[in-house]
Amino acid sequence: xxxxxxxxxxxxxxxxxxxxxxxxxxxxxxxxxxxxxxxxxxxxxxxxxxxxxxxxxxxxxxxxxxxxxxxxxxxxxxxxxxxxxxxxxxxxxxxxxxxxxxxxxxxxxxxxxxxxxxxxxxxxxxxxxxxxxxxxxxxxxxxxxxxxxxxxxxxxxxxxxxxxxxxxxxxxxxxxxxxxxxxxxxxxxxxxxxxxxxxxx
Length: 201
Known about the structure:
Elements: H1 7-10, H2 17-24, H3 27-39, H4 41-54, H5 57-73, H6 77-92, H7 95-115, H8 118-128, E1 131-132, H9 135-148, H10 154-164, E2 167-168, H11 171-185, H12 189-197
Parallel strand pairs: 1-2
Helix pairs in contact: 2-3, 4-5, 4-7, 5-6, 6-7, 9-10, 10-11, 11-12
């Protein structure tokens, strides 16, 4: 990937491209990590909110600790520092700090849904300039997915999806593959099974 392909990432408010690349080592690794972070925003923020509302501060502390680390890796330092403060509050039993700052954390975390939505637009744009996939190859891929998804074989599903992303897909197929990726990162095997079963392929 050339540098210009990453120019759009420089415009994303709230991340540091330079620091993210330093943490991840390569542009490919950084982009993959950024997409994973983006795909997990809903589920991870919901986990933090649920733990807070239920008073499960042990689980809450574990989750804000994880967020602190992942946010730092993509160069989201304000989010990372806020998560660090709440992690320390959780470890010290400082419920006032947690009460005063959890809503702020969740609002900031969820704001990345909009900030990183450019990733979806970029994927759609990239799809338009790729080589068309043959009907036979596409059918083989769907058949393979129907076989490996029920076995919860993460690596095989990821490999098949990565192979499909090399080709130009129809809007319907592109949306299915994009959704499967998001479900895979959250280990939602049942939903993946339903989605691939309803694909009509």
